[in-house]
Specification:
The complex is a heterodimer of chains A (240) and B (133). With 240 residues, chain A is mostly helical. Helices cover 68% and strands 2% of the residues of chain A. Chain B has helices spanning 2-31, 37-59, 64-86, 94-128. The chains are: A mainly alpha (240), B mainly alpha (133).
């Protein structure tokens, strides 16, 4: 009932003139997401906009690949590694996938321990997640190096359609940037967890708001999203 | 008999505390997401299995509709598990879930438009410029 009272004021308050009035109206207690904090809601909305960005990348890749008359390089062969004399298709990408999924698992457990107010386990699991993320970026750097040495450029490659390089560098580069930012984000929050900031509700240096363990879940949302995007890149770029 | 009675009496308080715990957990849901670790481990395991399956689709070199339906099936299952369990969307209110999950579905319209467009571009290229690929 309290919520209904908040969202349906009996009568509108007297208007305030100018910009102050606009700010007052927009910031009045109109909540669509009742039990979700502003931090979590904003992370979800940010992730939604990020979804559109990655959708546009994958769509432009699809359009380029479907409309070209030149054969597309076979990803199964391009991303194969020779291990012990035999060619294993896509093996590096498969390992990268498992690394990222594992990082998502440790992140989910970090969120769990965060809400149990287990400071040490939360920070440790977040750092393990960050380590998995750094491993992923390292493997991606290796993959980029290998392809560049083989002559892949954004404007051409030795095997087929020129758009292969531009799509590959754009999509995986943007995703790798997200992973890198996520690793920095994870380390920053893990440091605050480790220090016990959220046990004493210490104010953040940037927002000056009281810190809560919910920030671990919000960081987790971002991290799981990075994993989620990889699921789609894996399916559409590497397995097509 | 007395033993049973004592046992039952012994159970009584713990049953009550259990109910209390359940209520407390319900209240905690409003504030923070608390779910058993076992659930996360199970989802983690399934993500591994599904990733291995989609890798095997490529490894065995499946082709055509079978390849595509399997790849899309494993992709959607993985995405669903991550969003529902790891990101806790399954326990959020519908107002949030719909606000976040419906807009990306509309991207499929964009996909359809671009698919038609690229078929057309391909056709024009084949007719005017190059030998068909």
């Amino acid at each position: 009932m309290a919520e209904t009272a908040l969202t349906n004021p009996a009568q509108p308050s007297a208007p305030i003139a100018g910009w102050r009035g606009i700010a007052a109206d927009w910031s009045s207690d109109q909540r669509a997401f009742k039990n979700v904090s502003w931090g979590k809601a904003m992370m979800w909305i940010f992730l939604l906009s990020d979804t559109f960005i990655f959708s546009c990348f994958l769509l432009s890749y699809m359009t380029a690949r479907m409309s070209t008359t030149v054969p597309w390089p076979n990803p199964s062969e391009v991303f194969a590694l020779t291990i012990g004399g035999t060619q294993v298709p896509l093996i590096l990408i498969a390992i990268m996938t498992f690394v990222l999924i594992s990082s998502s698992g440790t992140m989910a457990m970090a969120v769990n321990f965060g809400y149990r107010r287990d400071r040490v386990k939360t920070a440790a699991l977040m750092l393990i997640t960050a380590a998995f993320g750094a491993t992923f970026v390292g493997m991606q750097a290796f993959e980029w190096t290998k392809l560049i040495m083989e002559g892949v450029r954004p404007w051409g490659n030795p095997w087929g359609a020129a758009q292969f390089g531009s799509s590959f560098f754009m999509i995986t580069g943007f995703h790798g940037t997200h992973v890198t930012i996520g690793v920095i984000f994870l380390i920053a929050i893990a440091r605050r967890v480790w220090r016990g900031d959220f046990d004493i509700e210490r104010r953040g240096f940037f927002t000056s708001r009281r810190g809560h363990y919910e920030i671990v879940e919000i960081t987790g949302l971002y991290w799981h999203f990075v994993d989620l995007v990889w699921v789609f890149i894996f399916a559409f770029f590497y397995l097509w | 008999m007395t033993n049973v009675a004592v046992h039952l009496e012994g159970q009584q308080p713990s049953l009550q505390t259990h109910v209390h715990d359940a209520i407390a957990a319900g209240a905690a849901h409003e504030k923070g997401q608390q779910h058993p670790i076992k659930l996360y481990l199970a989802v983690w395991g399934w993500l591994f299995v599904l990733s291995a399956c989609s890798y095997l689709v490529d490894y065995f070199g499946l082709h055509g509709y079978l390849r595509w339906s399997l790849i899309l099936l494993f992709m959607m299952l993985k995405a669903g598990l991550i969003v529902a369990v790891f990101m806790h969307m399954a326990w959020e209110r519908l107002a949030l879930a719909y606000a976040i999950l419906l807009p990306p579905v509309l991207v499929l319209v964009f996909v359809a438009i671009m698919a038609f467009e690229s078929e057309y571009t391909h056709l024009i290229r084949v007719m005017s410029f190059a030998a068909p690929a």
